[in-house]
Amino acid sequence: MLARQRQEAILRGVEDDGGVRVSELVEKLGVSDMTVRRDIEFLAGKGLVHKVHGGATAIGDRTIDEPGFSVKSAMNPVQKSEIARTAASLIGHGQTVAVSAGTTAYAVAVELRPVKRLTVVTNSPRVAELLYDPAREDQTVVLTGGVRTPSDALAGPVANRMLSEMHVDTLILGIHGIDTKAGLTTPNLLEAETNRQLIASAKRIIVVADHSKWGVIGLCTVGSLDQVDVLVTDAELDVEARRRVSEKVGQLIVAQ
Predict the structure, then answer these.
(1) Pairing of strands 19-21, 55-57
(2) Which end of the chain has fewer surrounding CB within 10 Å, N or C?
(3) Cβ atoms of residues 58 and 47 within 8 Å
(4) Domain-ending residue, one of 32, 59, 86
(5) C-beta of residue 206 within 8 angstroms of C-beta of residue 173
(6) Would you call 256 exposed, middle or buried from its count of C-beta atoms within 10 A (0-12, 13-18, 19+)?
(7) Phi-psi region of 161 (alpha: psi -120 to 50; beta: other; left: phi over 0)
(8) Which domain CATH number covers 43?
(9) Distance, CA of 149 to CA of 43 (rounded, Å)
(10) H/E element holding 150?
């Protein structure tokens, strides 16, 4: 396969799914890891894609752009792990916790597995599958219904109705974008209302978002920054952004 053909395939993947992973391209195109990475470097140099750890995503200048779960999982994995450990440390034994969909929220769910007597409400099938263990009588996992979205969230009227009757101690909320004016945003209209219901269900709202989410604005606002009790981010968020967000949220925690 010629370089031009490979690069066109990469661009189609980015256009269709919001992003692509190197490992998937290696298998699909039948070329080496190094070849795929060179093609991504070339396309990024032309300003056609945004190079990320493990793949490439759309440039992101449209408010409806959203990579799928598998693509997002390869973005900033170290920072997400740091954020997840920090956020999970804020959850005590015996709490009720809502966990949203998204790769950072999923990373927090991984760290929540040792917590005892935990009740988890989630609209993420991946989180529910991760935490469900029939051998653990001290843990309850509740999965909402709904329509599945590109980020592997269950959203829509069914999910909203169920969440409207839930009351939890803490919400772990992953988010597409954060901006001082637009607030917490998502490119998916179905997810927007479901995330609002998640926010309304919780006494305490913990937003987990790495530095790359700062300044990103999706199609629809989910909530304002002053609704956020705790924002957990990573050390790569610049000083000015930290100052601005600290003025809005209840507490800013930078994971180390």
Answers:
(1) antiparallel
(2) C
(3) no
(4) 59
(5) yes
(6) exposed
(7) alpha
(8) 1.10.10.10
(9) 28
(10) none
Parallel/antiparallel/unpaired status of strands 230-234 and 251-255: parallel
If asked whether residues 238 and 140 sit together in one domain, one would say yes
Evaluate the CA torsion angle 106, 110, 115, 118 in order and state its sign.
positive
Query: How many domains in the chain?
Result: 2
Instruction: Provide the pLDDT for residue 68.
Output: 60
Question: 154 and 204 share a domain?
Answer: yes
The helix (H) or strand (E) run that includes residue 221 is strand 220-223
133 falls within a domain: yes
pTM, rounded to two decimals? 0.76
The letter for the amino acid at 103 is: T
Per-residue pLDDT of the chain (256 residues; tens, 9 = 90+): 788 889 888 888 887 777 788 888 998 899 998 999 999 989 888 878 877 767 887 765 544 556 665 556 656 688 999 999 999 999 999 999 999 999 999 999 999 999 999 999 999 999 999 999 999 999 999 999 999 987 889 999 999 999 999 999 999 999 999 999 999 999 888 999 999 999 999 999 999 999 989 988 888 999 999 999 999 999 999 899 999 999 999 999 999 8
User: Is 13 among the domain residues?
Assistant: yes
Cβ distance 100 to 108 under 8 Å? no
CA distance 197 to 166: 9
Distance between CA atoms of residues 12 and 104, nearest Å: 26
What pLDDT is attached to residue 251? 97
Range of the domain at 40: 3-59
Q: What SS3 state is found at 129?
A: helix
* In-domain check, residue 70: no
45 and 136 within one domain: no
Let me know whether 177 and 116 are in one domain.
Answer: yes
Tokens representing 27 are: 């298998």
